[in-house]
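Checked the freezer inventory, then went back to the computational side. Two predictions to log before the end of the day. The first one is the construct we discussed on Monday; recording sequence and tokens without edits.
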Amino acid sequence: MAVQPEGKLLFGMGAPLAVSMMIQAVYNIVDSIFVSYLGENALTAVSLSFPIFMLMISVAVGTGVGINSLISRRLGAKRHEEAEHAAGNGFTLMLISMLVFVLFGIFGTRPFMRAYTANPETLEYGVTYLSIIMTCSVGLFMQIYCERIMQSQGQNFYVMLVQISGAVFNIIFDPILIFGLLGFPKLGMAGAAIATVGGQILSMLISFVLIFSKKNEVRLRAKNLRLKGPVVKEIYTVGAPSIILQALGTVMTLALNGILIAYTETAVAVFGVYFRVQSIAMMPLFGMTNAAMSIIAFNYGAQNRKRVMRTWRLALIAGLVMMLVMVVLIMLLPDQILGLFQATDEMLRIGRAALTIIPIGLVLAPVSIVCSVMFQAVGNGSYSMYLSLARQLLVLVPAAWLLSRIFHEVAAVWWAFPIAEVVTIVIALFMFANIYNTRIRTMPPEPPALA
């Protein structure tokens, strides 16, 4: 990460991540496609469950971002022992986080679903799905932990293998367990959840094999599992804002579900479908920006301004091109996409508007996302948190509520997304200018060893 050409390094690290994250997104959408055969109530239940599932992922990924950033910076600064302290403390933090969600899975799923639906079929579908996903979350947390350890060292090919294995397991066993094929029992919604956690556990096991059997620059050692205040603080200096940043998506989804369900439960199902389609569109970008964050963090630790800025510019250009292609495809194929989910006439009517209006804002989304990556890589994760807060709560939700009140039509709600994106980009550019002037511009143009 210190000497290879930035473009080659970004592609070499980002392409495996992009492929693996695309496959992750595909198996999430395949999960919903199979569930839709159980009926629209089943699809609505999964959509209502989605915010809590994403909250769990937010905590795991956010903690992982803090671990990744700290390890990369310590390796860049040649402080190897401190990098291993970060790895050990990160493992313990992941276990603690997992236990919190296991408790929610046992005690909190039914009250949560009752707050959103009085439909008994939707309620039972949601409780079944969400309780299994939460109580069996060890695979998710440990898989993400191992992935971040490997990413911090640039081992993204192994990350791709881990994620593909879990995705393939899920895709194969979804129809088998939902519909009772090949001699397996017909489990319905429970089958969808079991296939998901089964894929996560398989990925976790493969990750552990790679971490413990392969010669890694960073080792997980028992002596580093005991939490140390300074290490935990540094992990969450970047990780906590990232958790909040991603958890804001949960709050936003809950709020929008509340606005949409006032029209019809079908609108909630459409919103859930759109989010899965958007995840496919965004995952290549997130794969590339995850790689960019490791490269930028490493070279920021090594005080190499030229490589930091070159990587950022390349990530921005690549992100804009990728999103333009994805948005064009979504806007040209709304009926085909909705048809995958057994869409009714009402779902088609609402969904066509959603899949042609919301993506307008995605075209320029890489600007704020790549700026956010820079903030996290240099250790200022709070800026990322403020940016996400502005987009998802301060602008998007109020705009959606206001549009629903003014126009009294569900299609009006979708325009809140492009509005929020434009406002966010303006804020991101002001923040980036401040970070550049205070942290990047003051760095030497070449690393100290080469000056």
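The second is the one RB wanted added to the comparison set:
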Amino acid sequence: MIEEREGLEGMLEIMRDNDLDALTVRSGERTYELVQRVEGTPATPAAASEGNVSAAASAEAVAAANYKKVTAPIIGVFYLASAPGAEAFVEVGDRVEVGQVLCILEAMKLMNEITSDYAGVVRRILPENGALVSLGEEMFWIEP
């Protein structure tokens, strides 16, 4: 348990040093997913106590494990809206239904609408608008 805690603290240090919002590490059979608290979500009691960053990150990792992840089915440029200046398809906190358009991925001048496979609340949008996403990259976290 002590080794695991030290490993988590090391991962948190990597996140801080590289200004990362999230970090996923696979080690053997285990997967560790660390995420900074999303703005607007309540802090856990562990997060409220100063100096207890690893406990807060662990709580976030557990919460993130319960989210459904929408990943990029292709490589492309990520857009949250159908056109510059248009309203975003979804925002953090929005409720979505199965089949609802979440974003557009532009690949080879083709605009591909990406729809949700899950019903729930959007808890996190990972790529920045206009960013290039890779095949399998996480784009949305949806809480069922």
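For RB: The chain has two domains: 2-66, 69-143. Strands lie at 22-27, 30-35, 68-71, 76-79, 95-96, 101-107, 110-115, 120-125, 132-133, 138-143. Let me know if you want it refolded.
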